[in-house]
Amino acid sequence: MATPGSGFWSFGSEERSGEAENPGTAKAWCQAAQKFTGGIGTKLCALLYGDGEKPTETGAKEDLDSAEKAPACTCTDKPCSCQRADINYAFLHSTDLLPACNGEITTLSFLQDVMDILLQYVVKSFDRSTKVIDFHYPNELLQEYNWELADQPQTLEEILLNCRTTLKYAIKTGHPRYFNQLSTGLDMVGLAADWLTSTANTNIGKMIPSDLERRIIEAKQKGFVPFLVSATAGTTVYGAFDPLLAIADICKKYKIWMHVDAAWGGGLLMSRKHKWKLNGVERANSVTWNPHKMMGVPLQCSALLVREEGLMQSCNQMHASYLFQQDKHYDLSYDTGDKALQCGRHVDVFKLWLMWRAKGTTGFEAQIDKCLELAEYLYNKIKNREGYEMVFDGKPQHTNVCFWYVPPSLRSMEDNEERMNRLLKVAPVIKARMMEYGTTMVSYQPLGDKVNFFRMVISNPAATHQDIDFLIEEIERLGQDL
Ligand SMILES: Cc1ncc(COP(=O)(O)O)c(C=O)c1O
Question: Whole-angstrom Cα distance, residue 19 to residue 37?
Fold first, then answer.
């Protein structure tokens, strides 16, 4: 068994790693890639580095950083790989990547390095002389490496190392000799599609405790057995937080399961300034939390947290002996398959873990605080501005800012049915125009007796004050004639 930490970069089997080549280099990658039949490797190599840039077997391109040998960049699309500067990841963090100002080169370089790591994994996966798994006991890996999530961010060097280490010890599910009905095989087009969808990431009324208690009593009197209260921390439309402490008291009193849907609001727990809005969540029996919403983890990443240890297992386990054998040679508590309702699942939590390592708790906190601050900025900007009406009173609790834009032609109209009928068409027309121009996009919808209104939510870490200003200008530009 290879010593943990050694040979991350070796191509082919670890046993062949006598080749002292550092396969992290373009040269090593291309040398390995060229072994593939049908010229696929050469094509991949050319795609990665450009035909003119293809590293030669003599290693002459190793000197690319020497200025006199570097050919002048003639690429029209910037940033290009020619611009890859001498980047030292030991001093860089995720905050140096886009959307950071001037983050293009660092981002390009970082993503190319990730791509190199992935491509090497792909190449190795199909090489029959590579082990299907470089097996280490889970406790060995836990001892050998630092997997902890900390307050402070890790450097990008550490993040790249995390990626390599994870892939080194992961099962090579694409390996021709990995036989499994669920997660086997690695289709190149499917992989491209997965990257594409991840890159595009295409994803106040509150509960009144006294009313909740009244309804529980009523239900019991009618002979029903209320067994679950589903409170919401961050409602979808208004971003409202139910009073969780009071709800927890009622659930305790009537012995009712307390669930908190914190799909949208759970991210605020990362913020020392805003987490009080979820006070009482610690008393819930179960919580839903979608880091793919407020925390910006690429779709999808959803968690169901359950207080009672072992409950998921006892509810969901099927003891399917054809799937989950109990006589394996390692600690079975690391097998999570039998705890979940589903069988086939993506390892979505890895995205959250790696992002958390890279940002640290403080990084997520800053990201979330910034979004809330931008929402407050928008609210302050429009609450007294001519042509705007807020849908609910008071400052938003989350980043949901709900408002109507009232075009000049409706401003002096009486608040009657005709005005409502005209107002309900305003947001859809403005939205359609936004989409046609492609300048910005924001959601709208009706709710109860409230006609279509704009629902701005800010969870995009790239948004700035200027983008909020732009949105308002655009709404006015596109809606003033309505
Ligand atoms: C409060 C709340 N719960 C649950 C969901 C469902 O989220 P998903 O389908 O992404 O898991 C949403 C979606 O917006 C939501 O706002």
Answer: 21
